[in-house]
Amino acid sequence: MGKSFIIILFCFLGLGLQAQDSLCVFKTSPGVIGKLNGKKRPLQKGDFLNDKSAVYVTAPSDITLINAEGDAFNIKNVGTYSYPNLLKYKAIEDQKSLTSKYFKLIWDELLKRDSGKTIIGGVFRGDVLMEFPGDSTKTASSKLKFSWQIESDTTQYFVFIKDVANDAIHKFATNGNELVLYKDNPIFAESDTFEWAVSTSEFPNLKNIPFYTFSLIERSEYEELKSSYSDLITDLRALGLSDSEVEDTLCQTYGFCK
User: Fold this and answer.
1) Within this chain, do residues 135 and 150 fall inside the same structural domain, yes or no?
2) How many domains are there within the chain?
3) pTM of the entire structure?
4) Other beta carbons less than 10 A from residue 128's beta carbon
5) Strand 156-163 relative to strand 256-257: parallel, antiparallel, unpaired?
6) 246: number of CA atoms within 13 Å, CB side?
7) 44 with 78, same domain?
8) Do 86 and 39 share a structural domain?
9) CA 50 from chain center: how many Å?
């Protein structure tokens, strides 16, 4: 019991130290090299840098790093950057509170990515196949693309879409990991709130499988939701994100999609 407690405590302390003394790659460019754990390799989103790490930029690039406090750092010029040097390149001097909260959320997501849990796009609900739309997503798109994870040795998947208003369930069988439906499909005619699930079984017990909720919204409601994130959008654009990348961020992180 005592040894187990010490091991658990050590793990939590290790995560705490990583959070306090690390930078995480939020965005990088092809060809940027990082020295991680004594080895050099191309830098990738989600890589963690510590005080022994370095970044090598051989051509003008655009690299954004974040820390556990939600601060962003940006490197553009050719050079070799030690960990202390990276901390000198604050990306946004007057960074908004909403932006800090966003980067903290991204930090937690990247820190926990190896655990198999998902924070962004909905509360973690166990081992489910569904990827998009995430739980509680609102979408203004006329084209609805459902996507899910692939299981080994499985070639056919069954998608269930339930109209919350009347509990009517529609079933689709498909190969691969996507199903595309359009908003003018008759199954969306009677309601604007639905649930969906994916199963490898043609006749699962629908009471025992998890469903994700999604809602259909008008473009005007999307623009209204978007306006409440204007400070974040301004900061993300300052970091070089395109309009489409900003829209993807709002969709994946906050659950409303164009």
Assistant:
1) yes
2) 3
3) 0.80
4) 19
5) unpaired
6) 18
7) yes
8) yes
9) 23
Q: Are residues 159 and 205 in the same domain?
A: yes
Residue 123 counted as domain residue: no
The structure tokens 């939590």 sit at: 12
Query: Cis ω on the peptide bond leading into residue 133 (within 30° of 0)?
Result: yes
**DSSP of 82-127:** EHHHHTT-BS-TT--HHHHHHHHHHHHHHHTGGGT---TTS---SS
What does the block give as tokens for 128? 């489910």
Q: Assess if residue 178 is contained within a domain.
A: yes
Q: Is 40 helix (H, G, I), strand (E, B) or coil?
A: strand
* Average pLDDT score over residue span 208-225: 96
Residues 109 and 33 reside in one and the same domain: yes
Distance of alpha carbon 24 from alpha carbon 50, whole angstroms: 9
Domain of residue 88: give its range: 18-114
Amino acid found at 176: G
CA dihedral over 177, 180, 183, 184, signed as positive or negative: negative
149: helix, coil or strand? coil
226 & 196 share domain: no
Look over the chain and give the mean of its residue pLDDT values, rounded to a whole number: 88
The Cα–Cα gap between 106 and 251 comes to 14
CA 215, CA 134: separation in Å to the nearest integer?
Answer: 11
pLDDT the model gives residue 49 = 96
* Structure tokens belonging to residue 152: 């080994």
126-175 residue pLDDT tens? 468 999 999 999 999 999 999 999 998 898 999 999 999 999 999 999 99
Give tens-digit pLDDT for 23-34. Answer: 999 999 998 999
Q: Smallest Cα–Cα separation from 168: which of 113, 215, 208, 206?
A: 206
